[in-house]
Amino acid sequence: MEEIPLSRPDITDVEKQLVMDVLDSGRLSIGPVVEEFEALVARRAGCRHAVACSSGTAGLHMALVALGIGPGDEVITTPFSFVASANCILYVGATPVFVDIEPQSLNMDPAKLEAAITPRTRAILAVEAFGNPTHMDEYRRIAARHEIPLVEDCCEALGATWRGVPAGSFGRVGVFGFYPNKQITTGEGGMIVTDDDQLADICRSLRNQGRAPGATYGGARSGSWLAHERLGYNYRLSEVAAAIGVGQMRRFDEIAEMRDRVAGTYMRHLMDRAALVLPTVDPSTRQSWFIFVVRLTEEYTGDERKRIIEGMRRHDIGCAAYFPCIHLQPYFREQFGFEPGCFPVAESVCHRTIALPFHNRLTAREIDMVVQTLDLMITREDLKRT
Ligand SMILES: *Cc1c(COP(=O)(O)O)cnc(C)c1O
Q1: How far is the CA of 8 from the centre of ligand 1 (A)?
Q2: Tens digit of pLDDT for each residue in 345-367?
Q3: Fewer CB near the terminus (10 Å): N or C of the chain?
Q4: Where are the beta strands (DSSP E) in the chain?
Q5: pLDDT tens, position by position, 175-192
Q6: Closest residue (by CA) to atom 6 of ligand 1?
Q7: CATH number of the domain at 252-385, out of 3.40.50.2300, 3.30.470.20, 3.90.1150.10, 3.30.70.2740?
């Protein structure tokens, strides 16, 4: 039997042709294709500026550097996310302050967030978990009230909207990621989006070794190539990678439709399962499906979840426990003394999630097989108890 992978990028002749064009052009870095990719993402996110970079993590790092966040500062974030959303706070020497999530959207609980703000809070770093923008407007209001910036880690949310407001435009700055399991991919890559001219310029400089924005190697403006205005990084995205991104963005509506169809099929199949909590999508949001994550109900233990995932994998079905809690990762525990029990909602969710295979081209037959196997594994755990 063929394996059904957890995720799979969707690359067509459109992307391949654009990559070939770049390879033939002789210009492999800092060129027009990166600029085109930036313009396409800026438009989709409803932002004036987009700055392409080498990964979502690099984008988050630069966003915090550009905001001047450093040692002694606190940044509020969620424990239920991919680890990069908290790591970037450590990179700049600041202290992550975690806020527990609410169990429907799986995003930070706005009431708990407000209570976590101290005089040392310098930013709120919010994540649209699995592409769900619920509460982003509330975070934005809280940030404005306390005169601190909202940083939007929208790495999982390209194309999502809340009452028509696109993900990426809630924060003072937003960051998308283009790893192969995201809505669109460039292999590796990321994109900072903002309406703030100065912030965009600082990020353009930071990604290019601290050079003035617009500096190019060997070009008419090459006088600035060896002038470094600030401590920067090499966080650039290549023209080759950007070409994949341009192709993916040109196909974005089609991609979003395919993902909606797969998620809708899962929803219909799994609707009446007593053992499962399905993703909840608030009527005012348009979720952009990053992955499809179901959750076992409270009756199930972490060990039962583990056996269910192992059983699915034995049947060649890719499954994963997205996400383990960040505060319980070994180095967070060691550095900050977090223990189980600190953030009970997030921990309860973390022990029960199962990410099912999810990609653009998943067929109805494959979804059937995933659902049947999941039913079988859950039934087996139920039978063990009686
Ligand atoms: C994917 C992702 C990132 C960035 O990942 P990269 O692999 O560095 O592109 C950051 N935050 C979240 C929440 C993500 O899902």
Answers
A1: 16
A2: 999 999 999 999 999 999 999 99
A3: C
A4: 49-53, 74-77, 95-98, 121-127, 150-153, 161-162, 165-166, 173-177, 190-194, 276-277, 285-286, 292-296, 353-356
A5: 999 999 999 999 999 999
A6: 56
A7: 3.90.1150.10
